[in-house]
Amino acid sequence: MEFFNHVQKVYTETDHDTLNLDIPLAIFMIKLLSIKVDFSHFRDENKFNEYMKSDRPTKLRYYLQIKFRDEMIKATEVVKQEGNKENEYIDGCFRSREIYYDNRIPPFELRNELYDKYLKDKIFDDKIQNKISEWIKPDMVNGALNSEMRGLINMEIKKKYFNSFNSESAIMIQFLIKFSDRKSVLKLLYSMRDVYILGLV
Length: 201
Prior knowledge:
Number of strands: 0
Distance between the termini: 25 Å
Order of helices and strands: HHHHHHHHH
Largest sheet: none
Helix content: over 70%
Number of domains: 1
Shape: elongated
């Protein structure tokens, strides 16, 4: 999941409207590829020239055109599987053992565990925060509040795993069509060199 999380983080932190410009695109690609390779040696002109004369630009072209797509598809599938596992875990926490439909209030210790894992570090308005505080009290018996907290936890899981993995995966795969030939990759590398000369990363 590390690869997917890295791609997602870089993608969401980027102003997409600037990616048709070579310097912002180069900054984006340096950050995107940082999980795979360090281009900081581009600051040194001799090392950059050595890189450009080697087979590494060709290998990068192959990676951007073929391997990245494969890695993104595999990473997306892992994210989907992890999300499904968490959904199953939550179902088990809230499901009654006697009746198959969901009506169980998790015990106090489990509610606190769920709170720590899914709600503790999130920002909610005062109304929701008060409901969460009520839900994790030892003597909580409010079934409607319990259902609401389950919905809140499900929403956090959806945000983490399912809101973006299909769309962002497809967008990133489509985005890399920008590097469909030798010229486009060489242009990227020279722009990346300029980014280091300017000290932008």
